[in-house]
Every structure is written in C-alpha cells, then in structure tokens.
UniProtKB/TrEMBL annotation:
Domain Armadillo-like helical: 435-671
Keywords: Membrane, Transmembrane, Transmembrane helix
Domain of life: Eukaryota
GO CC terms of this entry: cytosol; membrane
PANTHER family: ARMADILLO-LIKE HELICAL DOMAIN-CONTAINING PROTEIN 3 (PTHR13608)
Annotated protein name in UniProt: ARMD3 protein
Gene source species: Trogon melanurus
Cited Pfam families: ARMH3_C
Amino acid sequence: MAQTEKKGGLLRKSSASKKPLKEKVVLMYDEIFTTEDPSKCNPRFWEELFLMKVNLEYLEGKLEALDGEELMKIKDNINCLFQHCIQALGEEHPIRVVNALQTLCALIRGVHQKNKSTSGFDIINMLVGFDKAELCMKNLMESLDSLLCAEGSESLKSLCLKLLLCLVTVTDNISQNTILEYVMINSIFEAILQILSSPLSRREHGYDAVVLLALLVNYRKYESVNPYIVKLSIVDDEATLNGMGLVIAQALSEYNRQYKDKEEEHQSGFFSALTNMVGSMFIADADEKISVQTNEAILLALYEAVHLNRNFITVLAQSHPEMGLMTTPASPIPTTPVTPLGTTPPSSDVISSAELPLDADVQTSNLLITFLKYSSIVMQDTKDEHRLHSGKLCLIILTCIAEDQYANAFLHDDNMNFRVNLHRMPMRHRKKAADKNLPCRPLVCAVLDLMVEFIVTHMMKEFPMDLYVRCIQIVHKLLCYQKKCRVRLHYTWRELWSALINLLKFLMSNETVLLAKHNIFTLALMVVNLFNMFITYGDTFLPTPSSYDELYYEIIRMHQNFDNLYSMVLRLSTNAGQWKEPASKVTHALVNIRAIINHFNPKIESYAAVNHISQLSEDQVLEVVRSNYDTLTLKLQDGLDQYERYSEQHKEAAFFKELVRSISINVRKNLAFNTLSQELLLKEFSTIS
C-alpha cells in the first residue's frame, strides 16, 4: 500500500502521479475565501467546520496571501466565520470549542498580518464588522470568561489565554489596539485572579495569566481610566497576591538557575582551565559568552504589582524554601513545547505553602531575594539593549521598594536575616567570593551590596549615567529611612564609601569624554550629598561611634579626590559656560567635607611631627580624629533627608511605552504554531463520543 504524506493541507500518495487531494477542512476554508455564502449549498457547513481539525498554517497563509481589495470582497464571509466561532464557544462539545478557539487565533493573526500598517479599527471591521462589533465582542469575552472560570479542561483554559494574548498583542503598540476597548468594557480581571489563587490553575496557566494582566494594565494607562489598573491597585486577597508572587518568583528563579548552570558549564570547560594557567587575562571576554535571554514580561508584572498595589509589598517577604534546592518529582510533568525563556511559563509551580512545608535544614528564600539575584545577573552587562532595559526596570522596582514604609520595615528587620548570594562580575583585581562565607543579614544589606556592586563594575566609556543616578537615589532613600527611624544597621559602610569615592575619581578622570554626553555634576552632587548625609546624621544611624570615626578617616585618607573635585567644580563654576550653575552647586555641597579635611589634616601632620612618625597607622589617625571633634565647626545643610518621590507618568512614560512594545512583539512572536498544537487536546478529549 502506498505511503500517504501530508503537507500544507494537501494529501497525496507518494507512489501515485495523480493530482494531490486536499484535506476536507482546507476545501471548506477555500469555500469561505469565495464571495459566495458557503452555507447556501450546505446548510450544515458551519456545524461541520468546527468538527474538523484546524489547519492553522493554511488558514493564516490564505489570509496573508490576499491583497486588501480581495480581502474586502470576502469580508462578509470572514465576519460570518468570526461570529460562528463565537457561537461555537458556547457548545457543550469540547472539540468544537477547541477548534473555534484555534480558528479565532488564526483569524486574528492572519488579518493582523494583512493590516499591519492600518489601525485597530480596520481590523475590527474586517473581523466582525462595525455594526455587530459591540455585541460580538461582548459575547466573545463572556464566553472566554466562563471557560476560564469553569471547572473544565485545563487545555481549554490554556487556549483561552493564548487567544487573549493573541488579541492583546495584535498590534506592536498595544495602546493603538482598539480591540482592547472591548476587553476593558468586558473585564476578565476576576478570571485572571481566580487562576492565580488556585494552585492547580496557577501551576498550569499562572505565567500566561500574569503576562496577560501586565499587558492589559498598560493599555492607554496615561490617557484614560484603565479598569485593570484600578482593580489591581485594590486587590487585598492574600491567596491571589501570593499566587501572583509565586508565579513571578518561579519565572525569575528559573532564569537564575539557567544562568548558574551556564556559568558552571562555562567554568568547567577548557577555557577555564586555560585561564587558571595563564591568570585572569581573558576573564571578561570569557564571561560575555554566558548569556540567557532576559524576561522583561515577568519583570513588568512584578513592577506593576509593586507600584500599584501596596498589599503586594507583603508578598515580597513571604518565606518559602530555596527554589534551587527543591527536588523535582520523579514522574514527568507534561509541559508545553519548549521555547526560549521569557516567553513560556516554567514547567511547575514549586512553591505552595500547603504542598511544601518549611524545613529547618533548608535555606529559606522569598520573592525579594530571588529578584535581587536576578537583578545582580542582568545588571552585570548593560551593553545589550534588553539587559539595559531589564537593569533599568530592576532599579525602578527597587526605587519603589525603597520608598515604601512597610517594605523598609522588613528590609531592616533584625529578625529577618538571610544569606543572599548575589552574582558578582569577574574582575581581574578581586577574587571570587566563596558562597559559604556569606553571613546572614537583614535584606537591606543585600540591596546595598547590589548597589555597591553596580557602582564598582560599570565605570566605563559607555557610561550608564541614568542607571548610576537611580542607584545613588536608592541608597539615599534607604539612608533617609534609617535616619528617620534611627535604625543602626550593622553594614560594611566602608565598602560603600570607597565605591562612592572611586566613582567621583572616575568622573574627574573622564571629565572631557563624559561632559560631551552627560551632566556629570548631577551625579557628583548626589554622591557628595550622600557623604553629607553621613556627616550630618551619621551619629543617628551608623552602628557604633567607631563607624562615625571611620567615615572621617576615609574622607581624610582620600582627601586628594575631594580636593581635585573641588578644583574642577570651582574652575567650571567661575567660567561663564553651560556647567556654571550645576558645578557651583557641587562647590557649595563640598563645604563640610572640605572643613573636615582642612581641620584634621594639620592636626595629623602636627601629631606625626611631634611623635617623629613618617606614616601614621589607621589607629593613630583615628586617635587624632577623636581628640579633635570638639573644635570642628560644620554648617547645617538643609534638605539632605528629603527626596522627590518616584513618578511613572511624568518621567518614565516613554521608557514603559517602548518596553511594552518590545514585550508585545516578543509575546506575539512566541505564540508559535507548536504552542497551539492540537495533539494534546485531542488526546484529552479522545473519550468523547
């Protein structure tokens, strides 16, 4: 018997020379693509169509092959197909529902491809017709809502979410997608929450639900009242918020795991052996090869939750076992086909307090720790545009956290100590820190470590000024909380002071190059004011009196950098140029630092001369400092503990618009044919008579 092959909707016998036969569903599609009503000759046409297995490729290809005029000629049939799809969603027969959902996906994508340059209005007209749009879209959204909330098939729910993602991302700029007006009017917000609050649904569909919600929240968010923003901001159900946190934590944890695996694989290879022999000559080049696709979609979801919903802040600190230490079940878990990270959900939801009780021997973690580890990876390399966007969004999220009173309370809580293993960029002049030596500390220490790490590792020609400004602002906001609440944090403050002084040194060394692109005085002023904050209020929040002494020691020890900075800003503030005003602000801000240097340096020189010592030890300098505090005069500077609160609409709208566009394109691209595969669906419904 001759072998039968199938390709592009055609059936043919390989040994025969006869004209290939078309699948019945393809023949039926061909009837739709004529100007005649296909149900004229066959009254059961639509009923039969939804019993046929959908040929997505053929249907989309057929739509794309038509030009605008040809498409307009068959508009009535396209409208009819769209309406019958919506009717089929109400059928009891699951196969009809599945086929209707997949046909809708093909229709929406096919018509979009044809109408790329046109507005959402044209797509609505082509799909459903203006006159019936409101009723049809209402029926569609109600059917999808019912399917998502029903106890039925998980595969159907998955397809519903895929269809909604398809609908939302039909245009690159989602705010130009007029179809979404109907998704705003006929809200599916409660259905999304239901998925996130149920462990089973969350495990299967949590990722798609969270990404869908993040996109819907960004529809015309600055132009009109978006009901999804309003509703998300007032959610207070613990199970729902925790569910959302679990989905985000799992996706970020999966990224961290993939990066760690690649890093270990890289270090165990031949190149690692070579670098061990010849030193760390090529370590930077080697590290560049470690690359895992970033996940802006899930990061956007975390941002919207933190920014919009104050109740979500509690989820950040919700303890659960360290994900990397969890063992996977022996039995395989059915998953969707694998596509790059950042586009599909992780295979399982490992964190559920009911399923995974905390073990005293297992290191506990939480969403904030997972996020900090993720941030430490993506912020290493900001040369790549996606990583730059991810790094910026990580810092924006940390800015929101650093401004929140409750978040600060648990960040600084001495009873909530964690060992946070941040990723550190390989550098020639420092050894890799051993993970086991990490102490357990309040979470704010990990945030400060991350900021110090960024400051130290990004002093380069392509200077990421915007990220540095955000980084210094986060440190400032944390210090403001410590000063206000008199929190004495046991932290290695010297590392921060040293990083800040080296940053000033870098700005001065590269003055000409940097001034051509940036106003470096804004950043210099922020750094100087951090020192002013320590000088003026340090006695209220530094852990011990000796810590305050060490601050003075560092300023005196590195006085040459402050002297050079003063010379530079004085030179520019006395010249009539564009930098006159910003430079003069730095000049005034340096008054107390210069007072400290000018007060103590002569005392130290005098001490050395009297005691015939050529070079004083640290203890000897500290002794001079402690003995001469009472004769030091400092000026009180106003506003050091004040800051401008984060505002998305006024300052970040352009960034988020571009970010959401990028996510929309990525989501649409990865809703590939294989993710809509019918094989699993047909297996699930194979028992249906």
